[in-house]
């Protein structure tokens, strides 16, 4: 199975490499020229030796001419090697950039359900660390594989021209190193794959701990966190040591065989010189070729080890890219616009489950009229936020049908559906950008006056003005330099600016003080006029003025009606209201 995975990874990598064929061909051409010139050097050196050791005289004329040619050949070979390096770097960079772009795009189109199944650090590790290892492996492969193979073929050709018996001896002994390298490669692939997997776990754990340091410190989790990290780190160290051990054995094993080859060739060659069958210059050349012949086996064995690491990483990256993406829009999908969106929302027998075989929501039936304010209330875990996610089509329903403005939700393009909603969640999200850019996230073309007006409506203008650079103040990652309430106000301002035809508010004022909440409620009431609004809330005092209240319990709508009607019923809602 591992062999099949490795082979599949190689084929998929080749598809990306073949896109940049001009650099591949350039690398091959310059490698060929570099090797030919390098292999021609021992012939020139051998000739120079013979011109210098002739009995009774030194042929200075031919010796000088040979030295000039040798210098020219070596300079040209150096230029070719530089060109090879340039082509290989460009080829590896473009290939890896292409793969990383595709992997990141695939991550963006994955359904939320898939993203929730693994730690987010796992995805980060695959796109960053695993792709980096692929880059290192490809670069070494391109740099040494072509040159090594051409060198082996070229040295055999030149050695055969000088002396066939010595060449045969070298060829017979050398393959031993290939058998050793092949055995080690099988071991290293498995170890490097385990190493990549545990590194993903470590990345996910670190991201989780760093992103939640306040919780870690508040609950005194430092020691347990450190203990868990040490366990993961120890596990990673074991896999890394085993992978490094097997890969480190490759070079000494091949070098031992290469030493054996060189010694055998030297002994046999010396005997032939004594017998007068070859000259000293020819012996010098053939020993040089024998050394160059064995050298690529060292490099190729190292390349094989590095490529096994790259293939193990590639298989993990491609596994990410093989995850089933979000269901694409069908060609006949309808596009919602401000003109054709009435704001009516209908749910008929809707069911949903996060995990197969376990229903989270069951038989939800409801019709929301255009412009209505619809509150969704209930205890924690009853399905309030899930209902909002289904309306945004973040998750696909398991049964039934949801219609927006009379159109089935699966017949509406996702982009237009989500643009039709303005959403403020209890979990705020801000990007590393200026305050103004964060507010205009849903309307990038907005001018500064529009942004300021939206901030004033959201009661965010007063604290933005106190920031060091006002609306141009840069917000750190996840809004770390703002309070929770300030971040929530910016998210509300973002919706105020876009003013879509429908609104989804999930605990929109959960992080705001009571005084500011009163102001925000007034702003939200103004914003909700003429817009269908879904309001999910724990604090029931915030949804008294809703046109209709849906009371959820255990994934079902237990009660529905206005606040006064539900209080009069003295049912589940009345109990919740008294507790609130």
Q: Which features would summarize this protein structure in a list?
A:
ABC transporter transmembrane region fold, Rossmann fold, single chain, 580 residues, four-stranded antiparallel sheet, alpha/beta, six-stranded mixed sheet, 2 domains, elongated
Write up what this structure looks like.
The protein is an alpha/beta fold. The protein folds into two domains: 2-321, ABC transporter type 1, transmembrane domain (ABC transporter transmembrane region fold, Up-down Bundle), CATH 1.20.1560; 327-420 and 545-580, P-loop containing nucleotide triphosphate hydrolases (Rossmann fold), CATH 3.40.50.300. Helices cover 64% and strands 9% of the residues. A six-stranded mixed sheet has the order 6-7-8-3-9-10, sandwiched between helices. Strands 2-1-4-5 form a four-stranded antiparallel sheet, with no helix packed on it. A hairpin with an 8-residue loop joins strand 1 (345-352) and strand 2. The mean pLDDT is 79.
